[in-house]
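yo, Purine nucleoside phosphorylase is done. seq:
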Amino acid sequence: MKLKNKIKKIKEKKKIAEIGVIGGSGFYKFLDQAREISIRTPFGQPSEKILVGTYQGKKVAFLSRHGKNHHLPPHKIPYQANIWALKMLGVERIITSCTAGSLQSHIKPGDFVITDHFVDRTKHRDDTFFHGPEVAHFSMAEPYCPTLRKLAAECCKKISIPYHKTGTIVVIEGPRFSTKPESRWFSAQAWDVVNMTHYPEVVLARELDICLVNIALVTDWDVGLEGNPKIKPVTTQEILGVFKQNVENVKELLSNIIPKIPKEKDCGCWQASESAFV
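structure:
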């Protein structure tokens, strides 16, 4: 069966979940009446069993990107299986969060960045479902759902989380961090944050007509900003402290976003594939 037809068949199935969340394991106690589901996809198994439950009447599926025990490094995460598994459950909107280093002095540790563009600097990741004979070209001019991005910004403002409503995230292969010259180059390009895990989630979601918003959780300034008089070198303890607070903030943010996601879609994400096939 052609991949396009498989996707169509999935859309016709009963929806177990409508909203997907990809992030860290701190979300596990968030859902009501939760149960774990094992799924096998044409692209293998996802990172972890998927937790499915409800939150304020919404059916939500949560997936731990690195696995419960954080056993998967960034370059070994089964990105295709993760996104396909959420699609199999009926997910139509995905909220992702990822830790990131700041590349600009005005973006501080503790800030949230609602990304509107990405730059791919990964090397060995399979970032498409379509390898032929079906050929599809998806636009990435506006890779994130405008409706979800607007909602995320409104909720950040409401609960007083320091945030940036736009930002470009550059994703590196990992698991190593950037060198100082690499980081200085990223900063010079006016890119905002650097991360190892967000790509190719965003493009795979677009290929399956899923709306996606990404929230980068800034834990530190990257090494390319060394020497800036406004910035003091951070310690591991400080990074861990910021990370812990970010986890609590993102849980509060999700608790505000999820109930407000509208049932009807007014964006073009869910129709992306209609003009993509050759």
